[in-house]
Amino acid sequence: MAKPLNGSGRSMPRSNEGMRLIFSAVVGVMLGYLFGISFPTVNITKLHFPSSIISYIEDRNSGITTQTLLNHAWASANNHKKNSSESNTDEIPEIYVPTNPKGAERLPPGIVVSETDLYPRRLWGDPSEDLTSEPRYLVTFTVGIGQKANIDAAVRKFSDKFTIMLFHYDGRTTEWDEFEWSKRAIHVSARKQTKWWYAKRFLHPDVVARYDYIFIWDEDLGVEHFNAEKYIELVRKHGLEISQPGLQPDRGLTWQMTKRRGDQEVHKFVEIMATVFSRNAWRCVWHMIQNDLVHGWGLDFALRKCVEVRARCRKEWGIFQTRLADAEKAYYLERGITPPNSTSV
C-alpha cells in the first residue's frame, strides 16, 4: 500500500527522522558545552551515559552518534577557551603598588601626594604662580582675645619666612582682622581646647612637612628680647632637634633651668610652654601625644625619647664601622697578609 505524502511531497517518517537528528545535535552540543565548562580537564571520550539516554538521542540510520557530537562540542569549547586566554593576555593589568601609602595601593606612584603644606592658594589663575614665597618655619599660638596685644607683639618678631597659625579656644576670630598680619595668618577655631589638642589634630607631620622648624607656643610669653632669625641660627649651629628660647628670669613662675643666662647660648632643659621642634623630631613627638591627655602634663620629660634614639643610631653606626674594620684586619693578619689602610662601608 502506498504511503500518504505530505504537502511537500516527502513522507512523514523521513520528516520525523530529520527532527530527531536536529534534536540529537542540539542536545549533544548543549551537553558538550556544559561538561566542557564543568570539567575542563576531563577526557570526553571516557564519559559513558546510560543506554536509555543514548538510545533516545542516537540516530541509528545516519550513523552519527551522540558520542561523536559530544566530541565535536568538546573541541569547540577548547578552541573557545584558547581564544579567550589569548585575548586575556592583551588586557592591561590592574595597578597595585604595595609601597604606596596605605589605601593608595591602586594609584600609580606618580600621582600620589602623601604630604601637603599650609600655604594659602588663590582661587584663580595659574596654580604655579600662586606662591610668591614658601616659608620654612611654622609658628603656632593657642589664643584668646584677651591676649590680643601680647600676640600682636609676638607675631611682629617673625618675618615673612614664618607662617603664623592661631588656634582660637574662645571662638572669636574676626576681632583679629585689625592686624594686617592676621589676614595672612591661618586661623583655626574650636572652643575650649588646649594647644596639644590642636597640635594633635591639625599639625600632622605630613601636613607640616614643608617646615624645617615648628614653634608651638603659649599665648602669654614675653618676647621683648627675642630675635627669631638669631634663634634659628643658634638652633642650626648646635643641631638642636627640640629646643626653646631662654625665658626672662623675672617673669612669672619659671623653672630655674629654663631661665635665660647671659653667659651661655644653650641649656639642656625644655618645657612645653615655648617648644620648638625640628621636622624630624616633631614626627616622633606627634605620635607620642595622646588623644585624651590634652594638657600635656609630663610631656616635656618624655621629649628626650624623640632625640636620644637618633643619637643612639649614630653611635651604633660608629661602633659597627669600628668592629667591621677590626674584623677585616684580624682576618688579614691571621693569614700573614698586610691589611689595607682603610675599610670602605
UniProtKB/TrEMBL annotation:
What keywords does the record list, in alphabetical order? Membrane, Transmembrane, Transmembrane helix
Q: Which InterPro entries match?
A: DUF707
Q: Which stretches does the entry tag as region Disordered?
A: 79-103
Coiled-coil features, chain-numbered ranges: none
Domain of life the protein comes from:
Eukaryota
Q: Where are the transmembrane segments?
A: 21-42
What is the name listed in the Swiss-Prot or TrEMBL entry for this protein? Lysine ketoglutarate reductase trans-splicing protein
